[in-house]
């Protein structure tokens, strides 16, 4: 197997993309959780 060095800019870009992906995934999870909590809360009020 040949080993080769990736340009730093490519490595940084890949890391950044991965971090953005992780950030968006966690934000999405938080949004769903918050939505669930708020709908639960409002349904309690209605009772």
List keywords for this structure.
47 residues, 1 helix, mainly alpha
Assembly level: single chain
Structural class: mainly alpha
The proportion of strand residues reads under 5%
Shape: rod-shaped
What is the tally of beta strands?
0
Number of helices: 1
Q: Which regions have little confidence, pLDDT < 50, spanning 5+ residues?
A: none
SSE topology sketch:
Elements: H1 8-46
State the gist of this model:
Residues 38-47 have a biased composition (Basic residues). The protein is mainly α.
Description:
With 47 residues, this protein is mainly alpha-helical. The protein starts with 7 loop residues before the first helix and ends with a helix. The model has no long low-confidence stretch (mean pLDDT 84). The protein is built from 1 helix and no strands. The chain is 83% helix and 0% strand.
